[in-house]
Amino acid sequence: MKNIEKSTEPSSIIDTQPRHEMHNRWPRAECVQDFIDNLAAVQSRIDAACLRAGRSTSDVRLLPVSKTMDEQHIRLAHQAGCKILGENKVQEAWGKSQAMSDLTDLKWSVIGHLQSNKAKLVARFASEFQALDSLNTAEILNRRLELENRTLDVFVQVNTSAEPSKYGLAPENVADFMAQLSPFPNLRVKGLMTLAEFSSDADRVRACFIRLRNLRDQLAEVYGNLHLSMGMSGDFEIAIEEGANVVRVGQAIFGARSLPDDHFWPTGG
Ligand SMILES: *Cc1c(COP(=O)(O)O)cnc(C)c1O
Predict the structure, then answer these.
(1) Is pLDDT of 15 > 90?
(2) Number of C-beta neighbours around residue 140 at 10 A
(3) How confident is the model at residue 148 (pLDDT cuts 50, 70, 90)?
(4) pTM, to two decimals
(5) Which DSSP string corresponds to the chain?
(6) Average pLDDT of the segment spanning 19-32
(7) Rounded to 5°, angle at Cα 154 from 151 and 160
(8) What percent of the chain shows pLDDT beyond 70?
(9) 104 CA from centroid of ligand 1 (Å)
(10) In order of start, what are the domains of the chain with their CATH numbers?
(11) What are the C-alpha distances in Å from 244 to residues 46, 47, 62, 79, 201?
(12) How far, in Å, is the centroid of ligand 1 from the Cα of 232?
């Protein structure tokens, strides 16, 4: 199923304005070839952004995000080469991992806020958790991981936009938080994660990514080269220009979601 709209999106776009306004225009991928095409298009935009920024493409990992997508579409994505998928809701991710346990090479990365009562599920099936922002959750996760005899790669989520609706630690609290993670050896702290301000103003988006990079640089003396997970379908090129090592891309691969993003980032957290 070839989609005409898709070809209007140049693969080597130079303009790095965030394209949030495009979210409802990504056509849904419906066959393996659609996924292959979309993955190739995203990868070539990643490569172009790396080239502009003088970075090596091997320093940037693409994490496809499959939240809200059903099993049928996820199986197509897997056939097109996706071996790890990001999901922001634990229950949903757990259900999918169970339903697709026959895909033994498929791993799951939980990228959304975790309530401590769901930590035991994450300890069971996730290979990565990108939204750590509480010591209570860290403690429970670590205990559950011990019981499962597993370790988990984690990213500490930072709220770089100061928006109260976003989860994550305030940048000034991250150093203290990191220092208190040492009693939890089953958590392997790999990096920092953020969501940029949801804005069509590229400078405001970029400022969030710069904040995360500066934080990483401040922490480098103690923690070495922490990876930066930042950038989504609408802004991953800006994120790469500012140092992203992981970009989390859903809609540019799977197609638009039917619900607005604030549905996934509930307020009052
Ligand atoms: C949904 C989501 C993404 C991907 O967003 P897209 O617009 O689909 O690329 C990235 N990170 C997090 C935490 C998300 O919840």
Answers:
(1) no
(2) 20
(3) very high
(4) 0.90
(5) ---TGGGGS-TT-------GGGGGGSPPP-SHHHHHHHHHHHHHHHHHHHHHHT--GGG-EEEEB-TT--HHHHHHHHHTT--EEEES-HHHHHHHHHHTTT-TT-EEEE-S---GGGHHHHHHH-SEEEEE--HHHHHHHHHHHHHHT--EEEEEEB--S--TTS-SB-GGGHHHHHHTTTT-TTEEEEEEE------S-HHHHHHHHHHHHHHHHHHHHHH-S-EEE---TTTHHHHHHTT-SEEEE-HHHH---SS-GGGTS-S--
(6) 78
(7) 170
(8) 87
(9) 24
(10) 30-256 (3.20.20.10)
(11) 10, 13, 10, 27, 19
(12) 6
- Ligand 1 binding pocket (C-beta < 6 A) is 65, 67, 88, 111-112, 195, 232-234, 248-251, 264
pLDDT digits (tens, 9 = 90+) for 110-143: 999 999 999 999 999 999 999 999 999 999 999 9
Here the tokens at position 241 are: 């220009």
Mutation to probe ligand 1, out of 46, 66, 67 (largest number of atoms < 8 A from CB): 67
CA 64–ligand 1 middle distance (angstroms): 9
